[in-house]
Fold:
Amino acid sequence: MIFGKVIGTVVSTVKDVNLNGKKLLLCREADHEGTLLQSYHVAVDAVGAGEGSFVLISYGSSARMTEETKNAPVDAVIMALIDDVQITHVIPRP
Amino acid sequence: MIFGKVIGTVVSTVKDVNLNGKKLLLCREADHEGTLLQSYHVAVDAVGAGEGSFVLISYGSSARMTEETKNAPVDAVIMALIDDVQITHVIPRP
Amino acid sequence: MIFGKVIGTVVSTVKDVNLNGKKLLLCREADHEGTLLQSYHVAVDAVGAGEGSFVLISYGSSARMTEETKNAPVDAVIMALIDDVQITHVIPRP
Amino acid sequence: MIFGKVIGTVVSTVKDVNLNGKKLLLCREADHEGTLLQSYHVAVDAVGAGEGSFVLISYGSSARMTEETKNAPVDAVIMALIDDVQITHVIPRP
Amino acid sequence: MIFGKVIGTVVSTVKDVNLNGKKLLLCREADHEGTLLQSYHVAVDAVGAGEGSFVLISYGSSARMTEETKNAPVDAVIMALIDDVQITHVIPRP
Structure:
């Protein structure tokens, strides 16, 4: 899974029937500290994400494993809103 | 999913039987602002895309989840025509 | 799907039983204009490709969607011979 | 599969129902010698990994092949704790 | 599929139940001429590969299509030992 921040919406009228009523969100990838990267992803929302949400995105066939996305031709889904990323193991510096 | 612009057609006479009658389109990848990138994709059209269409492409097993592509040996499908990409969350500059 | 040119054969005696009788072809990746790139792929032939054929390769689970490859542990298949790639939409230069 | 070291936890309250009770771990990728790389992965734990564990991560639909992850919309799973990586074949230097 | 040379073994006691008795091999990626690259892969052996074997590795859900790997949470399998790679189509130099 990868981290992302929701920054927008993709509007589409003509689309596959299994996409009707689905929210296609534009996400900017982030690292585990929340820093935004130069990479963008379009994913279907399965958890009520909104503008600015810090989310987790799952790719591939796993993107179809939510109620919202089953049978839909989508390869990315937002399947969790992130509260916090806790770094518990500190790597000693050399 | 990734953004693309349809720029051409792939013509093939000898192909897998499940590809008969399918439209194989050549797409140039684009970013969320519609700027064209140096990356090209061949995808089956499932939504009536035409020359110059700004589209959304889904990869992997999800590419077989449309009526047009089920059971076909294809790993990319055009599953939506894009009307607009709305950036609703502005990242403050540092 | 990606473009490739068939340049050789992979010979294997000891292999998974579902690969018996399958042709494992070495392909050099090409761009949409047929220019050869520095990237190579091994794919099972499902359409009678031969030396020098300009082909389309499908990756992932979709590679098992041909009669030739079903149930085989292969992640790439040649599923079409390319006659022509027609660029119909010209991007205006800035 | 890729190597990783568990360095943290992803906390999420709002998530897909199939993720309830699952441990989402943050892993830093490592090479086969255990050297840490600049790449991070979020994976569900299926084997009782803890802070600092040296683990093996499986991606894609295979990530759903454990009891812990079946039917869950996750594309990465920790499916083994690594005791040792034994290099048995030494490549002669030129 | 990609080429690799078997250079070692990954030892794991605590692992998913479907991995019991499976051989997890460390492979160094190679190109089609057998030249070793700076990329490493962990794959389950399905064909009796040993130290120094030149092998073919299949990725993704296809990695579960051998008797050895079915239902196992693994995303890479060694599914063929390579005898030879024959380059039959010579690209004329410009």
In short: Chain C has one domain: 2-81. The beta strands of chain C are 2-11, 24-30, 36-45, 54-59, 76-81, 84-87.
